[in-house]
Model the fold of this input.
Amino acid sequence: MKKIIEAIKTGESVGRKVLGRSEEEDERNVSAWEASAGKKDELFQKISDTGFIQEKALYYKNFDIAKAWREAKVREHTGRGRRMAVRRWMAWGAAAVIVLFVSVAMFWMMRGEQAVERVDVHKTIARIVPGRGVPVLFLEDNTSIELSAEVQMIEGKQGIEIGKKTISYTSVRAKVGRVYNRLVVPKGAEYHLVLADGSEIWLNSESTLRYFVNDTDAERVVYLQGEAYFKIAKNEKKPFKVISGDHVVKVLGTEFNINAYAGESLIYTTLLEGSVDVGVLDSPGGHQVLSERGRQSAYNPTNKGISIRRVDPRVYTAWKDGYFVFNYSTLREVIHQLSRWYDFDYEADDSILDHYHFSGEFKRFDNLDSVLEIIRSTGIPFALDYRDGKIIIRRNNV
Amino acid sequence: MEGKFTDEAFFQKLQEGDEGKLKELFNDFFALFVAFARNYLGQDDTCEDIVQDTFVAFWEQRASFKNIYYVKAFFYKTIRHKCLNYIRHQKITSRHASEEQKNDLADKSYFIDAIIQEEASRMIYEEILKLSNMGRQVMLLALDGCSNDEIAEKLGISVNTVRTHKARTYQYLRERLGELRILLLVLFSTY
Done:
């Protein structure tokens, strides 16, 4: 018990110190902690890292404490809670009678126009299906090719095999020199790529990758904007680098996922296998190594901070196998991901996006209407509407 | 620990079974304990279940604690125990693959570090909430990934004002962090 209490007090002192509000006792606590066994500088650095602070602040800000209290089991053990339980049952009984009465009345009233309108909204949303976007390949001379046919040939190019869902390069072309192609995957599409060195890359919706065509350089470098899953062929002599802005991930041979969408505040790298080195261009000191499955780094481009945490890797990589997996994700995150894949615009109240969380999984090819229905069935109170080409999500206070 | 929880009258009422006081305690500590549990189970719903159960256990023994530190210590100890048990009995092997990792998690020093980390982080977050009203709103929107333009529009201020608030806050934090790193260097070189 004493050790734990010491740790609590040390935590408080460290917090005050980070904030510059430490007093004599805090200094003593921190010094004592420093002097104790073990390496403390890593933890200290982690706690004071601005990326980590951001992550924590976001967690606390979005935590739905009111919901936790509503569901609190401990309330059944307090005096008031027990009395409440009886009253609640009586209230439910009364409510049930009223609901029955009202719904019979509503049924007769709603049979007219309004009910038809609701069906229409659902019909419209159900028509939104993924896979409508067409990826585009840009060759080194900037000619573009729409990747919509089952098999395609490019005149004068050997070693490139193009299909509707995948493209692969082979090393037959002995041309030396730096040749790059670019693949642009729009909203509502995804694409698979095999590079000349045998590495495989899955590109998610709304993502762009610029990559080498010949495996002749000393290094293997690609440039990513958006999200991609990488399965890199082992070659210890030639490191493979993925660059997004000034964020660099360096590997020798491994599997990982990078989420680096323009306009998002953080870049996430999630490790599945092997190890990767995450760093910042022109800042050789600031790199971190991920070497355990499920480790994730979050890079903050505004302050160049990299923080590391442990996650369920499935949540971040399931998209590649055709699933959406959410684990206590905010509704904002869920809708945002869906909008990218189903390619729809939406409008929603902040109060509903930030205050509800969703855990669950579904297939990426499920119909959008049923996906939204599943989310709603978990008790998130929203109503749907469709106006001016946008899905409108409103809090439904019934 | 600050404020009301160190107050004896508060503590006595809590021990007598005042639900209002329980709610205050719950509101202030629930998220903190879930954050702590995530050090063991990652982002798993089980974390919340475990903390909810621990509140029940705490309530049943509430008369036996000397002060709020003992209460918190009880929570940390119990939550850790429940998490390790869960790992042992459930098939979440994919998440924490190797035996080696399981041993790391069961390590006492991992436990102590997790407590320090969460206590300190919570305190820092509370400090952000204490920033001036506009400064806080700017920061919270920025944390949500809003661009400067979006923040300016939402708060009805100019983009330049947004930039100023951001710069000021980051500088404030950076100065504090800078002091901390320097202090560490000094501590380590003289030790």
